[in-house]
Structure formats: C-alpha cells, structure tokens
C-alpha cells in the first residue's frame, strides 16, 4: 500500500558518497562539485572520474581534488565510455548512501540531507528520488519546502511504471542505499541509453521506493550534447532501449514477481502506444513537414512490441492521417489547435509528475 507520511529530521551525519563521471564537461565541473560540497548535514566522499576527456577535464578534476580533502579524482588515460565510467566511480566510493551526478548537472541546496533522512527513517526503501528541474543556462528557482514523503512498495511502483512505459526519474535526483547499489552491481552495458531506467526497475524489485514531495532535488542540464534532445529522430532508439531494459528486468530480477506476465504485457502495450503517438506527432505540422518513413518505422515497432497495436485506435488514426497526406490534404485539426492542446496536456502531465513522482498511465492522444 502506498503511504504518504510526514518527513522526519535527519539523525546524526550519515556519509554520502557522490560519484561524478565526466567527459568533456570540464567547464561545468567546478559548479557541479561546488553544488555537492555546499550540501549541509552529511559527511561526503566525492570522486570525479574523467574518461580521458580531450578538453582538459582531468586537470580540472585534479585541481578540485587538491583544494578539498573530501574530493578525489581519477583521470583515465584512455576512453572507456560512460557505463564503465559510471561503475568505476561507484566502485571507488564508500558511504551509507550514494548519488551518481553527471558533471554537467547540479544538486539543489539541501538535497542530500533530505534524501538521507528518508532512507534513514525507512530501512525498506532502497532508492529515493524527488524532482529535477531542467535548465540550459540560468538556474530556475528551486522549491525548498518539503511537504511529505511517499513510500511506494516496490511492486506497486513497478506496476505504475509498466503501465506508462516511461522513465519518470532523472539520475541527479536519485539517492540509493549503498547496500542496494552493491547488490545491483552497477549500471548494465547492455542498455547504454536506458541503463538508469533498468537500475530503477531493479531497485524496485529489491525494496520500496521513496519520493520527496513538493521540493526540487537537482538541476538537469539540457543542451545539444544530451542523448535525447532530438524531437523525433531518437524515438526509435529510446523506445527500443526501454523495451530492452524491461525485457532484461523481467528475465532476470523480476522473473519471480507475482503477475509478471501482466506487468510485461502492460509495458509492451504502453511502449507500443507511445510509438504510435510519436508517429502521429510527426504529421502535426502538415504534409510538407511530415516524416512518412519515420512514422512507418514507428508503426512497425509498435506492432513488434505488441501485435494488438495493429488494430488499436491510435493505429487507425495514423492510417487516416497517412491517407490524407497521400491525397495532399492537411491535418483535420489545424496545427495551431493541435499545438495548443498538446501544450496544455504536457503541462498538466508535468505538474502531475512534479507533485506525485510518477506519470499517468498511457492515455488517448
């Protein structure tokens, strides 16, 4: 049963390990590390792992380590990729709790103490998250008024995630119990674009999930180097990687869960509907801006994920749209109306996720 409870104060000074992987983010690194060292109420073990960055990030990391005994630096002499860099940093730190923080992201003030307090008070919780604000240049103001904690039994959290297929958690907002991280043996290289998502699924199979409500825990930087900034072009990879993460999870950590077949089916259906929704989105700006080949590939992916998608409502809408485009006609609903409707829907969903920590189950477009 999901519980929403009153927050409890932090007891003592738990040790929090923060691993900071870095590749070509030397110009962001000092701000990132400062956002960690300014955290109050916890003892810190911070390690920066530079993956042989050609921009001089390794030298920046070593300089930061030389100025504060809580910081260590590892500068690799050859590039091994982000998964091995993540895991090397996590293996090298020690503490009661652990955070993985990309060198281009930041922690919000008070983040670590708030997360640690929940993990202290609820030993059954293996992972806690809050909300990460996105930013490009200027930091938006962060909410600092913690209203409540939500404790999700792992299987209930999994059911919600399978029902919507999406990843509602950004890496910088997450703190894990160190023992949980050790049990999960780090990030999985089989899903390089969804390794964090698979980690969250596995954590939920090992224990409860905690959520901090009404407060912003981190800042997630959005820029051209992020993996998923392309509006549609990366959709097939993104959906495919989440599907692969689900399949690995259900074959390994989740194979003994009650009702596993239903959860697996719900995840496949949710992803198929997401693929069709994106395929329809590619036609929203009229025939001249349409991407028929991408829409076709997304439709094929939807049916591959769940054969029932071949006759679902979204597929029928996609076929009608394709026929209109072939006939040289524009969308039935004017693009301006579609854009406004989409903006309102996305804003409402954003507010829901910001408040509750989860997304709605798959809805009609």
From TrEMBL:
- Mitochondrion as a keyword of this entry, yes or no, is no
Give an example GO molecular function.
Answer: transferase activity
The protein's matches in PANTHER family, at most eight in alphabetical order, are given as: GLYCOSYLTRANSFERASE, GLYCOSYLTRANSFERASE 2-LIKE DOMAIN-CONTAINING PROTEIN
Disulfide bond found in the keyword field: no
User: Which organism was this protein described from?
Assistant: Phytohabitans rumicis
Signal peptide bounds = none
- Taken from the record, one Pfam family name reads Glycos_transf_2
Could you list this entry's UniProt keywords, alphabetically sorted. Transferase
Where does the record place the Glycosyltransferase 2-like domain? Answer: 18-146
Entry protein name: Glycosyl transferase
